[in-house]
Amino acid sequence: MKTLFLVRHAKSSWDLAPLNDFGRSLNERGKKDAPAMAQRLLNKNINIDVFISSPAKRAKKTAELFCNIYKKDKEQIVFIPSLYHASLPTFFEVVEQLNDNYNSVAMFSHNPGITEFVNQLVEGVKIDNMPTCGVFAIKTNITKWKDFSMSKKELLLFDYPKAE
User: Fold this and answer.
1) pLDDT tens profile 22-69
2) pLDDT digits over 78-96, tens only?
3) CB proximity list for 15: less than 8 A, separation 6 or greater
4) Which of 111, 114, 121, 156 sits at a 20 to 30 Å CA gap from 148?
5) For position 141, which CATH number holds?
6) Rounded CA gap, 73 and 35, in Å?
7) How far is it, in rounded angstroms, from Cα 138 to Cα 152?
8) How many domains does the chain have?
């Protein structure tokens, strides 16, 4: 059994308009939402083996805030450059190359790709727009991540900051 938690980065700041997209940081709401969402997962006794993230500043910081709540070393976050504005095929490729020792993976990325990806995973489940710091989790009965795309997936949870 493998579990994948897809997390859109928390709310980012537009205060420094000239800053390029890759370097945008989290705003105050994002800095509150990320640890709150991580705590919600932890309160459900959800274990996460590895945190994987786009290296863009806002995704990286969201992943770090999740690590803080999970008491994991943020130096252990795996950064995958292709998760920055990833396309649908890229998401599948990244998942299918995951180490099979990881049973529970949290992956931090961006719209529009993350919304497109989650909408391909569970039959009959469609989301108009993955909210900032939203968590979409699925489980699938596989032992090897390379079998992910062809496997039947089941929605485990969909949660986001304003859902409470």
Assistant:
1) 888 888 999 999 999 999 999 999 999 999 999 999 999 999 999 999
2) 999 999 999 999 999 999 9
3) 27
4) 111
5) 3.40.50.1240
6) 15
7) 10
8) 1
